[in-house]
Write a structure and sequence with these properties.
Elements: E1 3-6, E2 9-12, H1 16-45, H2 53-59, H3 63-91, H4 95-122
Antiparallel strand pairs: 1-2
Helix pairs in contact: 1-3, 3-4
Length: 130
Amino acid sequence: MTERVYAGRPRPGNNFELYSWFFMRISGLLLILLVIGHMVIMHIINNVDVIDYDFVAARWASIGWRAYDWLLLFLALLHGANGVRVVIDDYVRRKGWKVFTVAVLYTFTFILLILGSLVIITFEPIGMGS
């Protein structure tokens, strides 16, 4: 693998950072649209007085709303984790600590993504309309 030097720091010859940069821009734009849609639906169209378990259960009866919420979860977790990875890369100098902190970050991100996905996928409403 060839190394290039930019601003005194060696950079690997692969395109991971370029793809990461593009991901942050694209996911950021998608997140803005998804969050604005979420805010309008949950806080402007519907009053907070009507948002309860039955409201969410009725909303998640549609695969479209589950997909919407899962995409919001997925993009927010990956966008945030990628941002923290960049901060770790900038501030953690020792290679061993960098590997350790990035591994912890990826582990927590993976666990949260799996748990959030399981909740969205396996949710079954109970006691609606009570």
